[in-house]
Write a structure and sequence with these properties.
Elements (H helix, E strand, L loop, with lengths): L17 H31 L7 H21 L2 H21 L1 H26 L5 H25 L5 H6 L10 H29 L4 H32 L2 H8 L3 H22 L8 H30 L14 H27 L10
Length: 366
């Protein structure tokens, strides 16, 4: 089924070879996604941490404090991949956003509300008060944002659905892959945030932190990783077999280029479960906790590559006759690369300082 809603290809030539924009898109999206996962997964874990278990208050406080900078960095590092989407697939992506314009614009309101709720929760926790209801409301905002993002990403890959969505916007949610894709995203976020929480707890106890609370933080984080990874593996196969038949066949026929990242990503998930099963006391098994972090980040990288490949298999029929002119602008690319690397280095420096420069006992917090 074809649609006449696809805008004409921009006649302006690409300012560089297409492969370069694909690489930059994947790299910048990875950085953006790690912060997004920290925010979404961290908010969910903070809401789920409760009040009575050991390390619950410390877990909540760390996660909301991490969100206070991770939200800003997720937004900032979302600009670059959005620009590369515009260069490569702008006519598809922005048409999809127009078809669900009100939810798309509504993300700004949800993001603003969630951002301020995070600070309310942070101040209440620091004052020794409960923030459970606030954290759940914040989590609901971020879950809604994730649902909108998944909807737009599914919609922009399927121009054949645009006319129906233009008539009835709610049809955008009728895609059979929506729920497994949404769960895949949310569960990955929980795993990333859980691993981060466990790693921070191990680091704290190595620097003289209180063992009981740190053990509670680490155990809670690793339990979240275990449960979310088990569900993630099952959901991943649900998502794979929920793909349209032509897309699934195209993916399978891609040979090593498509199957290798997917298979290695699945093996990374299985390896992650094996490492988790060996952790009996995370505070004395710091190497295994670090390995959990490494395997999760590795799996995220591989799944991003698979996601990117599936996108272009979806869009292959609509782009079959696409002829793109290329006029490289290497000076502009060099300027971008210098600025990007510099900003990334400053971000790493700021995050490291934020983690290390914690007030000592008796100090007044800034």
């Amino acid at each position: 089924m074809q649609t006449n809603l696809i805008p004409a290809l921009d006649p302006a030539p690409l300012p560089g070879p297409p492969w370069l924009f694909h690489v930059l898109w994947i790299v910048t999206f990875l950085i953006h996604l790690l912060f997004v996962n920290t925010v979404l997964g961290g908010t969910l874990l903070a809401a789920l941490a409760g009040r009575t278990r050991a390390g619950a208050r410390e877990s909540r406080l760390f996660l909301v404090e991490a969100n206070s900078w991770a939200i800003s960095l997720a937004i900032t590092f979302g600009i670059a991949p959005l620009l590369f989407v515009q260069v490569v697939l702008g006519r598809f992506f922005y048409t999809a956003t127009l078809l669900v314009a009100w939810p798309w614009l509504g993300m700004l309101g949800l993001l603003t509300v969630a951002y301020y709720l995070n600070y309310v929760a942070k101040f209440r926790l620091k004052a020794g008060k409960d923030a459970g209801a606030i954290l759940w409301l914040e989590a609901l905002c971020f879950l809604s944002i994730a649902a909108i993002q998944v909807t737009v990403n599914l919609l922009h890959m399927q121009p054949a659905r645009w006319e129906r969505v233009a008539d009835q916007a709610w049809v955008a949610l009728a895609d059979p892959t929506f729920l497994p894709r949404y769960l895949h995203f949310v569960l990955a976020a929980v795993a990333v945030a859980g691993a981060l929480l466990a790693w921070v707890a191990v680091r704290r106890v190595a620097k003289g932190g209180e063992a009981v609370s740190c053990r509670g933080m680490a155990s809670f984080g690793l339990k979240a990783v275990m449960i979310s990874t088990l569900l993630q593996l099952a959901d991943g196969f649900w998502l794979l077999f929920a793909l349209p038949e032509d897309v699934l066949k195209g993916f399978m026929r891609g040979g090593a280029a498509t199957m290798l990242p997917f298979v290695v990503g699945v093996l990374a998930g299985i390896g992650l479960l094996m490492v988790l099963a060996q952790v009996s006391d995370p505070l004395t098994q710091a190497t295994k906790v670090r390995r959990v972090m490494e395997l999760i980040v590795g799996a995220v990288v591989l799944m991003i590559v698979t996601r990117h490949q599936l996108r272009f298999i979806y869009l292959a029929p609509a782009r079959a006759s696409e002829q793109v002119a290329v006029a490289p602008q290497w000076d502009v690319f060099a300027l971008f690369l210098v600025c990007f690397v510099l900003c990334l280095a400053l971000t790493v420096y700021a995050v490291v300082r934020a983690v290390k420069d914690q007030p000592q006992a008796g100090e007044q917090a800034a």
